[in-house]
Amino acid sequence: MTDTTDSDSKPTPDELLHTGAEHPVDPEDLVMASGRDVTKKRLAQAKKDLEEHGAAAVEKVLP
């Protein structure tokens, strides 16, 4: 059995790394950023928050 170590790991490819600035934030993104399950009620609230605060709404749910 072999253990993986940091020296065995490879960096994440650039195409998989993104900040989210490339795409507009949608209500589902906002709910998922909060770490909660996506429900109709949470999507509706997220949509309202995005309409009111724009993409800055994400800043309110991130730790």
What does this structure look like?
There is one protein chain. This protein is mainly alpha-helical. It is 41% helix and 0% strand. It is built from three helices and no strands. The protein has helices spanning 27-33, 40-53, 57-61. α1 packs across α2 (40-53). It is elongated and about 45 Å long. The mean pLDDT is 81.
Note the main attributes of this structure.
63 residues
End-to-end separation: 38 Å
Helix content: 40-55%
Number of strands: 0
Largest sheet properties: none
Give the uncertain stretches in residue-range form: none
Q: Supply the number of helical segments.
A: 3
Mean pLDDT across every amino acid position: 81
Shape: elongated
Q: Give the structural class.
A: mainly alpha
List the SSEs and their pairings.
Layout: H1 27-33, H2 40-53, H3 57-61
Helix pairs in contact: 1-2
In brief:
This protein is mostly helical and 63 residues long.
